Amino acid sequence: MTLAEIVLPPSQAARALMIAAASLAILAAVWIFQGLGYQPCELCLTQRYAFYAAAPLAVLTAFAASRSAHGLARAGFALLAAAFVANAALAAYHSGVEYHWWAGPTACTGALTGSLDVNDLVKSLDSVKVVRCDEVQLRIAGLSLAGWNVLASAALAVYAALAARL
Questions:
Q1: Buried b (16+ CB within 10 A) or exposed e, 55-70
Q2: Which of 50, 82, 87, 111 could make an SS bond with 153 (beta carbons 3.0 to 4.6 A apart)?
Q3: Euclidean distance between CA atoms 57 and 105, whole angstroms
Q4: Is-contact 91 149, C-beta < 8 A?
């Protein structure tokens, strides 16, 4: 078996299962980081939706491909590609927020505004812990997890788009 056959196997079902496996591996990785104490922000959690949706969609796409429903399989790959393109865009937006190139959602970025009551702040500390979207908790090889998500989602989008054309 050649490297090309491993990366882009001849069967549409195998391609779809590779996307499902990659999605599950990415989810497992972020859950492990979370278990190690790196708490996700609002944007991090939102970026997981694409992988939550992609894993079962890829399995359904593999099922359709194995039943010779090539039109359905191609549609599944096209949906996967669209989900990963959207996720890459969201991850790029999050990376820009982390680099302070633009403002992020007010729920998880920015400074406190308005009048503050110390008693209200103390009470809120007991119940709420907001993880800021504009502060990187972990960098791997110089990229935040949002940066790695841009690359992973873009790669999966290209892979799914290529699979849809075959």
A1: bebbbbbbbbbeeeee
A2: 87
A3: 29
A4: yes
